[in-house]
Here is the input.
Amino acid sequence: MAGAQGQVEQQVAHFRDEFKKLRDEVGKMIVGHQDIVDGVLACLFASGHALLEGVPGLGKTLLIRTLAQALSLDFSRIQFTPDLMPADIIGTNIITEDAQTGRRGFQFQRGPLFAQMVLADEINRATPKTQSALLEAMQEHTVTSGGVKYTLKEPFFVMATQNPIEQEGTYPLPEAQLDRFFFKLVVGYSDREELKTILDRTTTGFKPDVKPVMSGEQIIAGQELVQRVIVAPHVQDYAIRLVLATHPNGPFAPPAVSKYVRWGSSPRGAQAVTLAAKIYAMLDGRYNVSFDDIKKAALPALRHRLLLNFEGEAEGLSTDFVLNEVLGALPTAAEKAA
Here is the structure.
């Protein structure tokens, strides 16, 4: 038993070291935004996908490009525009002719979605039909064209970006597609020191050398390790009650939820909170999840899974405000639940 425990501790320590190496390598290009980098890496190790929201020029595109270099994975960037069609993403069947027999037939030409790391840049600029072309790939890791199903190479990771300010000519993501994203991360502005470092790096000929520090096989091994992290029943129950507390007029909903929320989180929210909490536990050197791990995962995992009602929107509230109300009102299992 002691040997098994030692092996677990060794695996957790190895995971922390690999995570730190990857974070440091990304840090050669990305200045600050440590919570965003950690959130994107958490999505990757949880086999999920990330949605980044922020104004242009904050380094969202650079982040995933750098991450692909540090992982030596196939990278593809798709610029979403109103005229982009599903076939431009998935691929299409083209007519080919055999040079020897002269016979013609259809051959599937793969689109940019057939990569291990896909950047869906400004995803809300494409039409809903094109946005939906990502759904099967994100959920099943497969693509279907002409009745034939193609399996995507693992690990498969989508990071989408959207601009929260310029909404003219955009198509907001429907709730069903938002729910496919593991985390929604809000990218803020850099502070004074970070901006100085950015200028020093980008206006002086500085050329950082980003090297591969982890393979796809190591990422998959990390994803499997995350699944095995222990969640005690009382901690799991807290995650369950946290999600149920986002349902208006439910047994655990605080007044703010019943007043301002139209729809609460789906079961995917509970899955995301639990998996992210497992990663945060390992980064803290533990093989078991704590209440604080659950709380840390709550905002990025649930903020895009809540839909405010008219009153909430009219008062200019955010889902973060509602979730903070939930976290403040919901007792942990160590206390007497209402």
